[in-house]
Every structure is written in C-alpha cells, then in structure tokens.
Amino acid sequence: MASSTRSGQTAVTRKVVLLGVLVVIAAAVYSGGWMLAATVMRQRVSELLDGHNAAGAEVRCNDMDIRGYPFRIGLFCSSVTVDDRFNGVSASLGAFRSAAQVYAPSHFVWEMDGPAELRSALGFSFSAEWERLHSSVSAWFDGLSRSSLVTEGLKVDVTTVANGNTATIRSDHGEFHIRRNGEDLDAAALVKNTSILMPNATPLALPPVSASFDVTMLGKAALLDPVRDTTAAELYGSKGEIRRLVIDLGEGRVMTANGPLSIGDDGNLSGKLHLELEKVEGWKDALTVAFPESTNDFDNAAKVLTAVFGGKDSGSVELTLREGVVSVGIIPIGVLPAL
C-alpha cells in the first residue's frame, strides 16, 4: 500500500512539474511575441513618422516608448512635434498615450495633453487648450478604416501674424467621426455651445451655436491610406452628399439641410439642397446683428423664403446652388464664398 501511495504521489508530482514547465514555456513564448510585436511596431511607427504617411509630414515622438506588457501594447511620447513642409505647417503638442489589447492591435485608443501650437505659412498661428482630447481608431499598416475624436472644453486662438489680431473659438463639446465606405469616405461631426470672440475682443453677436453634419465624399477613401495620394487629397473637383446638416441657434431657430453637392475647380459649390428652416425672422435678426454689412442680403433672403413658405415663419424649400449662387427656383437669394 505504501508503495502504491508513493507511486501515485510521484505521478501527481510529475504532472504538476510538467504543467509548471509548460506554463513557463508559454509565458516565455508570449513574452517573446510581445517583445517582437513591440519592436515591429516601433520600426513601423518610426517609418510613418519619418514622412511615410498620408500627410507627407515628419513627426517626432519625443522619448518614444512602447508599453502595456503583458495584456496591452501602446505608444507613449512625452511630447509631439510636426513638420509638414508640403503644406507649410509646423506644430508642437503635449504628451501622447495610446493602448490596444494584444489580441486586437488594429483597434486602439489614444489621448493627448495640451496645449498645442500650430504655425502656418499662410500667415496664421493657432494655439489650443482642452480639458480632454481622446480618440478611438481602427487601423493597420495599410491605412485607417475608421476613427472617432472627442474633445471637451476646447479653446482655440487663431492669430493673424501680420497684425497680431486674435480670434478665439470655444466649444463645450466636439466630436468628429470618419470611416471608409468602399471607395467613398463618410464623415460626421458635432459641436455644442460654440462661441466666437473676434479680434476686437467683443463677442461675435451670435448666440452659442450647436451644429452637426453627416456627409459622404465620393471616391475619397484613399485619403485614409498611409501613402499620399495627391489626386484623392484634392478637394476641388470632388463630389459628395450631405446626408444631414443641422445648425441650431437656440430659441427654436433651427436649420436642416440635405442633398448632393460638388466643388468646382474654382472652389465654388454646386448642387441641390432640401432646406428646412424654423423661425425665418429669428434667423434674419440674429444674422443681421452679427453681420450688419450684409443686412440687405439677409432681408431679401428672408422675404423670398417667407413668400415660398406661404407667409409662414417656418417651412421647407428646394435650393439650387450653381457655382456659388444660391437660388430658390429662378430667384437668386445669396452668394456663397468659394472654398
């Protein structure tokens, strides 16, 4: 009996030892795989940051580090600088942090600290601060498939270098979403309680604006590729559709629009939009106070829309845009600036 008991204990001990060895081997293989993945990620990120990206920009991730072992993997930078010589843009930003689950490295989240400074060769500089900026991204080395960006408590200062005048934009909440849709590109955005302070340090006489849009850009999915496609990046000559555009000035002053649009080679818009407008007089009054130099244009547009709505203060209408000229039927009611 004693011999039989010792044999059973020996067999159990062997199984435990074997299990322990297998665990150690598995841990070693997993750790090696994680380290290999981190090395490959570092190399590929370095290539993308060195100008091999859709923007053709050089990006410096200061104090680059790959962290997250054992269950996550992510890129960390103490600060980020950008040099886009093609577009004449340079920028400096705060700390960057990202993370992805090891079993789904193509889907990751990231966040960045402020402040941010951006300088443009066009004669403008931008500075931005925020309470929180974070994003969710689905991408691989062949490009981006979808991404979402959310900001809270955003403040942006836009300065004209020539005269030092600064305009300030504030927004309580903002979102931007983008995704591939076959060969097309879908984009959507939302802002809440957005206000503007003009260079003369007086608020633009518009109430805080909330707005959203949902659009499709035909044939522009290549914008998300990691290598620059100059044809896809060209805005002029492109076509798309506004699935829904909403602008809300509060107090019932809401505008909703949808329909196809195209951008000409000169930057002018053409297309047809279905427009729904509530509180025509409220819109006219708000815009007249904010832009008094265009009072006559707003008066004429309000008269035409009120007539089309059968004398009512709200209604819907089909607008025609032809090279920037906005018309109701054959009656022009305004001109949009070229992009």
Automatic annotation (TrEMBL):
The chain crosses the membrane at residues 16-37. InterPro entries: DUF2125 (IPR018666). Keywords: Membrane, Transmembrane, Transmembrane helix. It holds the Pfam family DUF2125. This is DUF2125 domain-containing protein. It comes from Ciceribacter thiooxidans.
